[in-house]
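User: two proteins, same treatment. go.

Assistant:
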Amino acid sequence: MTQQRSGTGAAATPGSSTAASAGGSSGRSGASAAPKLAFGLIGFLFFVEIVSGIIQGYYVPLISDLVTHLGLGNDADFNIFEGTQLLLAALVVPILAKLGDMYGHRRILLLSTVVAATATWALAFSENPVTFLIAWTLQGVYTVWLPLEIAIIFMRGRQTGRAAAETRRAAAFLIVGLESGAILGAVGAGQLFGLFGGDADPGAAMVPTLIVPAVFVSLAFFAVLFGVPKHTPPGGRTLDGVGFLLLSTALLLVTGGLTLLKFNGAGTWWVWALMIAGLVLFVPFVRWELRQDDPAVDVRVLASPQMWPVMLTAMLIGISLLGAQAPLSTFAGTDPAEAGFGLGLSAGSRSILIGVYLISMIAGALVFPWLSRTLSPRRALIVAAFLVTIGYALFLPFHNTVPQVFTNMCVAGIGSGILMGALPAAAAAAAPAEQTGVATAMTNTTKTIGGSIASTVFAIVLVVGLGDAAGGGSTHASLTGYLTVWSICAGGALLAAISLFLVPKVAFTDAER
């Protein structure tokens, strides 16, 4: 891409003589138009992230009714659907992001919205578990939207010389859209289900209720089609099929093994064998990638001091971001009169607790650009990781009252909100221009791996606590199990903060580039 420079370089630009003869007025007009174009682009992508948030939040209040609608055994059976969607996300997001680097991020973003919209419409009319599982799994391609959006914004920001700063600011607004959509989805689903007669006839109300998110995902396609400018990346790129096959197989064995471990228990030897095989497979993957001119994932870039702490932080923060929400909900719902701990909150009150957490994440996302300007992007990441550490560490002594738990979640939520936008923006700033998409996508993949590990470990820890609680025969986990969960979350965030100190001080800035 040719950069326009001052002096003779500008004079050689087509149409520049006309601008000069106009006394420079058109030049000022063009300069003022650029921010408006950027704002319009971010506005369309903001809507796409609202839709992404709606998808994430909409189905949660409907799980019990979906279990009945599909004829599943119990609510726990729905974990299979969640697991397959996370698995697909871990497998396809790096591939789709790489295709975005090769053929254009907008083009792959459009393709992913078509797949997600088709799957979401299929969900509305699926009446058996098999078709619902297939549609639910395919819907998981929406997880590539944020990495592709960050890449789009960063590539356009390179034209101004302020790509890193503009990407951080835009990423913050995108995370606001994401979390706002999650709140809208969680609140709106229950209200719409009741409006469509869910209390009287749940089966008849389910179809129109599930059509609503399908409409929003369809609108997201048109937002990208008409709101995101076309961009053709340089040609000559090749898709490293062998590299992606090795990576996908390794991730499938590790994340699939973790899911199976959760259902089959820690004593199942063949599940451990699957995960070990997956870890071993990373060795030939790395060796293969080091020999490629255009690798699937540039491991040299991942190993750079600017990048590996970002990836490690994404995985460690995934522990609390994706793994700790279910334990928080069950702890809040535990009756203290029966268990000796817990808050005894109703389902409605627990949804408020989660809502407060999401709002605190929005606050964190909004404060991120200011914090980066005031301290530096690197220090902002460190502060955010420490906030998550403090938030979960506060649970250890303070977990007996609702105000204590609200305070803890707000502190952790602000830190998590900062990191949600900061990590993909940092990865984009640290990566070569032709690898922006796959670099941002890898923060999503490593976060998913961290969440999968945490989900499995937490499930085992809390299930083991069932026999210990109240002398055995209890239906709730022990307090020791919850304290272990919070300790792991705090320890992971602390390790992330420490690793970020190893990042060069000027990392993730436009000056570095």
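Protein 2:
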Amino acid sequence: MTAPHVSLPDPTHSSHLPPLDPTQSPVTGWTRAHWEAMADRLLDGLLPYASRELAQYRLPGRASHSGPWSDGLEGYARSFLLAAFRIAGSGGQVSPALIERYAAGLAAGTDPHGADRWPPIADRSQPMVEAASIAIALHETRPWIWDKLDDAVRQRVAAWLGGFVGADVNDSNWRLFQVITEEFLASVGAPHSRAEIDGGLARIEDWYRGDGWYTDGDGRKFDYYNAWALHLYPILWARIAGPRADPALTAVHRSRLREFLGVHQYFFGSDGAPVHQGRSLTYRYATAAPLWAGALADATPLPPGRTRRLASGALRHFAERGVPDERGLLSLGWYRPFLPVTQRYSGPASPYWASKAFLGLLVPAEHPVWTAPEEPGPVDTEDAYLALPAPGWLLHSTAADGIVRLVNHGSDRLPPPPAEAEDSPHYTKFAYSGAAAPETPAGGPATGTGTVTGFDNHIALLTADGTAVSRRDRIHPLGAEGRCAASWHRAVLPGSGEEHRIETTSVVHGPWEVRVHRVEGPPGAVVREGGWALADDSGPLVESTGPGWALARRQGDGLTSAVVALHGWGTPESDEEDCLPGGAVARARGANAYGEYSATPCLRLPAHPGRSHLLVTLVVLSADPVRPCDPGALRTRAGVRVNQEGAVVIRFPDGLEEEVPGAAGSG
């Protein structure tokens, strides 16, 4: 398949952007000029919220748990990072007012007696995060800002950043904030600790799991922090350290980034949407940062035209959906403001970590990553599946609709035992995608169905009245290879204290995922499984149900979510259609980042038999315009047979067969 040519005009903020260039960029139409224009739009949008002395940006919105003082610093630091990429990328050929604006903020923010002073760097405090952005920005703009500051201001900046030396740092990606900040101090001859720099770099070695994957601290914490922190900061550290950096170590970092980017390219749908998984999703297109880092450090396996296609696709994806908003601001949300994708540490300026996506402006304009014609991404050209054993994930994508789906059998963001498990919809679901988001409800019954929201991509034990629902506890991976990934977890019914093992194997092919569940449970417990949650702002979704299946469909683009019972959902005697309970659709409002109205198709086993019970479900997320999803036909064409050893042989709707062993593992 050749790269599709652009045929539509920019529908959002077109007055702020140059015309599309379908010759240079036949997929997205976007060029370096679009990136520069978007950076300017974001920087201009912040000005009305600057403090008098330009050291803080107090944006509208909910304050973080660190409070407005820290939030104001965050607004300065994260936008300074964006300004730095814009200034350095143009060789200083920007409006002098932009340079003066951030130089003035440095002078005012580090004045310990000034009205605009910054909060100090203290143990495990948010200013540690922001100090790293300021240090990177100062390094990249050194000829235009640092070298021209008054000596007294330079000394104050170094003293403020020096609060890192000897401080206690969170044992996560935060260790790299210390590395970055103290390396900058070393570069300007200020006090620093080489032992702390080396210790931070050594600590991330403990978290490397192979194949380009770091966990963000001890445990199984796999998410985008692997991309926009644990790979990114070592590359930026090497730029600051220069000859002080150990060449062998920088070679390791570059090799790992190269390996990671070979996989990361599969995380973007053909419309540019990154897979919606993990925390800090309000950083949005920061997911593109490692793509540019690979080009900047000559550490990428991707052709230059593909790097730009993927990064520009992500930036354009959000621009077409109202990001930034009409004020030029990044809100706390995904497309529209939506607080459930944020965390307690998220303040009004937190989304400006998206500035990392503009790292590509540091790559010279004449570099092939900017001059080569765009090339299609892997999702644009053919169907693919990819097992990722380190995080316990399985990716599968389809070219017909450009959708990427991530099957999760390994990331729960929990520290090692005996830490208690927490249920997070951005980590504990069976699957994630860029085309759909998990339900993130406040709790309570969904409208019209008598069910409870939050069943999407989840299997649960329920009490007979449906008032108590089990969660997916700590995920115990059992492997990921080929088309398969598996794990088990303990399901605990609230109030009962009883634990019941649920072991699940996912097998993928095209748009289909078949889940083979071996479910332990008390006699009479209800079992419910949900498919993908779909959402839309225009109104309620189309719903359809039948014996052993349920469907939700978005009217505008035909995106469809369906679940189909293949085995075990009927009476003990039969899975024939007349013995199957009807499917259901759980509806909600205000519970999904992708739209006001959402719906999740579900299956229901009325009474667990009280022993380990085999359930097999076909789960579909598709917008294929040629092969529309028809659950009734899928149920006829797909099938399952169980042999005497308990192995499950799956027949996909197109006839492909895969076998799942009688037991994926034990634990």
